[in-house]
Structure formats: structure tokens, C-alpha cells
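Hi R.,

As promised, here are both runs. First protein below:
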Amino acid sequence: MADKARKNSLVDEVYQNIEGWITSGQLDPGDRLNIEDISKELGVSRTPVREAIGRLIQDGYVEQRHNAGPSVISFTPEQELDICEANAYIMDVVMGTLRRTAGGKTLSLELRSIYEEQKAACEAGDLARFHQASTDFHNTIISFCSNETIKKAAANIYRQLNISTLLYQTIVDNQNMGLENHEGILLAIEAGDLTKAQELMKKHNVEGTRRYLQRRAE
């Protein structure tokens, strides 16, 4: 029993390391994941690396193509647009479910802490920290969704969106816009106006899609 717990803990640790490399941009979409190299880098055997990569495939961070090893998932421009649109749609549904929960105060407290972290990261020019806080902001809202099926679908779509938007967040204007949008959503939630928060989230995602298309056209 203890051996199994240690093994699971080791797999979790490897998973978190690889996930961090992907979401921080240390690994780019399409980069191959060499099991031998990763095991040496992390000082572990190949078994937990294989298991962690299997989980990353299930969670949508990594893909296993025919006759090729595992690699960071990559999307065509058309797929990225589909993900943007799917995220906008399902986040609108998520925000609608928040009106049926009693956890508004807890949510606002968690989001306030995350927002302050994101703001500090923006002022410091720390992209990795900013991106993590932005991710935490959205994931925290998703975690308060009252429908478990919608919650899982939203989390999966947002994971895919997160991979394709790291480059988008390197643009300072986009960081400022994201921070401003998050503040508006947060203030609405703090005021208990979840209808307004839902409207602002919709605008946030629509503007994000518009800017994505603009970046793609450049």
C-alpha cells in the first residue's frame, strides 16, 4: 500500500513538471517528449514518466500520433479558432450555473487573491507568473460550476485553449486587456451581480477571439 502511494506521488510529481514545461512555454506545441531524456532530467525511472505522459494524453496536453512518440499537442489555425469559440460558449454556460450556487462569497475571495497576483505579475513583467494567475482565475471559476459534466468539459476545453494562447499573452496590450477584463468580472461577482459577471465574461471571450484572429492575420 505504501509502495503504491509513493509511486502515485512520483507520477504526480512528473506530471506536474511536464505540465509546467508545457503551460509556461518551455515546451512548444509539437515538441517531442523523449521518455529517456525526461527520466534523466527528473532523476526518476522511465515507468513514472510513461504513466505521467499517459495522463497528459488523457488530459489533452500531449498527443500520441501513429508511428511517432508522444509530443506536446498542436492545433491548426482552424482548430484553435474552434477551441476559442467552444470556450466562449461553455464559459457562458458555466457562468450561468454560478447563479444556482451558494458559494459566491468564497469564489470572490479566491478570485480577489488570484487577481492581485496577476496584477503584480503584470507590473513585474513576469509572463510565466501572469499566465499562471490567468489560468488560475479561469480554472477557479470553472471549479465552482454546479454541473459536474459541464465542469469537466469546460476544464478540458480551457486546457487546450491555454496551450494555444501563451504566445497571445506575450503581447503587453493583451495582458492589460485580460487584467482589466478579469477585474470587471471580479467586481461584479463581489457585488453579487452574477448576471453582469456572465455578460462581462462573454465580452472577455469574444474580445479574446477577435484579437486571436487579428494576430493570425498579421
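And here is the second one, sequence first, then its C-alpha cells:
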Amino acid sequence: MSGTPAAARACILAAVLGGIWCTLPAYAPDAPVPWDTAVLLAALGLGCEAADRRSPSGGPGPVAAGAFLPLLLAASFLLPPAAAALVAATGSPAGRVEQPPYAARRIWRAAQLALTCAAASWAYAALGGPATLGGGEAAPAFPRALLPACAAALTFSLVLTALDGLVLAAAERRPARSSAGRPPGCPPPSSAGSPCSAGPWSAVPGPVRRSRR
């Protein structure tokens, strides 16, 4: 992380601390975490990221970049916030990183997706989403189940985009509004000389693929 601006380092550190805080309730002895579901989703996410990382650089691969984001949204529906954050943090560091600084991008990716999944899961639970899924002899409450699901998906997108804009603003020393208004993974032409903005900081890598680790 030696080439990372101080503002970007502070942003990454804050995201990491926030992500760790989000996962802490999962470690409680009486935490209501369905670990079998969490482990399955984490393994699927890890497999998707590993498959994308092994795909040929510069060409279509077997798994599109960011293909496991819907899986993370499903984790936000099926798991409590702490467990959903753990699922995101488990698989995301294994994904493709196109440009240096590699360590900083992997750490940011894990923290960003952990915060995003936790926020989406909180929104889903706050609107009674788990109760609408049914279970046992109860049938799913449709169409009422659409409200918490849509709210969670919206929260997922908003938090992911906001964090993208925040780290881009910190790395490129640009106003957060102009950074957030750009599609994720598309740095402005004026930032091409910056080691931090020479590629996407977002969870979904951009179309330019030069090198990877």
C-alpha cells in the first residue's frame, strides 16, 4: 500500500474497521446464525471469484466479473447481517485484481462488500423480510415479500455505489459527487497517471485488463 494516498488509506482502514464491527455479532455463542447456509454461500462465492480470476485476461471468461454479487444479495436475504458480512469478506479477496496496489484493492474489496451486505441485510430484516419467506407450515407472504426484497436490493446498490464514490474521491483527490456520478470502474482520463486510479477500485472490475494477480 506504499503507493496509496493517505486519504485512501484512511478510507480503507475505516471500511475495514466497520466491516469487522459488522461481523462481531456472529461470533457470540448464542448467535442465531445458520452456519450451514453461510458456509455454502461463502463456498459458492469463493468458487465464482476463483473462476473469474482464472479466466483469460482481456477476453471473455467462464464467469463474468462481479457474477457473484447476486449471491451476496441472496446472503443478505437468508442470513443475519453479521453472517452476510462474513460471507462477503470470505470470497471477495480471491477475485481478480487488475491494477496495483493489489493488496490495497483486495482489502478494500472485502471491506466494501462486507459493509454492503450487512446494510442490505439490516434493511431486509427491518422491514420484516425473514417473516415473509414462510417456513414450516407457513406459506411465503407474496406479494408482501417484494417490499423488503426490493428495499434490500436498493440498499445494496446505494451503499456499494456510495463506497465506490468515497474511495475514488480519496484516491483521486476529486470531489465525492463527481466520483460517485461515474460508472463504477471507469476512472476519468485525467487520473491515468495516478497509481491508485490506474484501474477500478470498485467491486466489479472494469473492462480494461492489463495485468492481474
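A quick note on the second one: Residues 61-65, 181-211 have pLDDT under 50 and may be disordered. Let me know what you think.

Best,
J.
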